[in-house]
Amino acid sequence: MSTLPKVAVDVTPESRAFWDGLARGELVVTWCEACDGHVWPPRDRCPACLAGPTTTRVLSGEGTLYSYTVVHRPDPAFAEAVPYVLGYVSLDGGPTIMANVAGVPFDRLEVGMRLRLRAPEGGADGPVGGAVFEPVPGEDATA
């Protein structure tokens, strides 16, 4: 149930809107206006139709747990956080991204459960942390 520590990331011009949005508690994805679809990972041109430049859209911050794993043998940077959960979250109206899932006991995790982006701890200052999702209160995988 651990939250991963913040680590510095290599922010590119294409990914800056995503990371800046995450620091504000928003999920910002790259969008292709020509295809009317998300572009993930962030890029300046759409890989489907090659249109560019891409724009950005703010998503709701909610999604569905597609798959997950409980990590017991981590990268050394995350050794103090074990065990923790990495999951693929299918974002409402957007891509499926890998993120930390916290705020739920491991035995209560269910594929299909509704999740929402957790507000960042400490705001936008300091090293960037990745997306952290937690269960949507009052919803479960069978709803």
From TrEMBL:
UniProt cross-references to Pfam families, sorted A to Z: OB_ChsH2_C, zf-ChsH2
Name of the protein described by the UniProt record: OB-fold protein
PANTHER family: BLR3430 PROTEIN
Matching Gene3D superfamilies: 6.10.30.10
Domain ChsH2 C-terminal OB-fold: 58-118
Lineage: Bacteria, Bacillati, Actinomycetota, Actinomycetes, Streptosporangiales
Signal peptide limits: none
Boundaries of every ChsH2 rubredoxin-like zinc ribbon domain copy: 19-52
